[in-house]
Design goal:
This protein has one helix spanning 2-14, and strands spanning 22-30, 35-40, 51-57, 71-79, 82-90. The protein is mainly beta and 92 residues long. The longest helix is centred in the first third of the chain and has 13 residues, at 2-14.
């Protein structure tokens, strides 16, 4: 039983960190390039502190209706080597 628990603990630790929703504020949108700039809190799965930075939109449709100042909750990850917003919703 102890051996099984140790194996499970090792496997869980070896998994990549799952994306977690992060709060932020959109500061700029570039629909032509499919990018948005977000001032955000820490992004644990990317080992990133709070900062303002540019992300690629995983789906260009997520940029529709956004403007500077919009508060959002989002998930981000590395997709093909680029920091990408994989899920986005306006904060309530």
């Amino acid at each position: 039983m102890l051996k099984t628990a140790a194996i499970l603990a090792f496997l869980v630790a070896a998994l990549p960190a799952a994306a977690q929703s992060v709060s932020g504020t959109v500061t700029k949108i570039d629909e032509a390039q499919g990018k948005l700039t977000i001032n955000h809190g820490p992004i644990k799965n990317l080992d990133m502190d709070s900062m303002t930075m540019v992300f690629r939109a995983g789906d260009p449709a997520m940029l529709k209706g956004l403007k500077a100042g919009t508060k959002v909750k989002f998930d981000a990850d590395r997709v093909n080597g680029q920091l990408t917003v994989t899920k986005l919703q306006k904060a309530k």
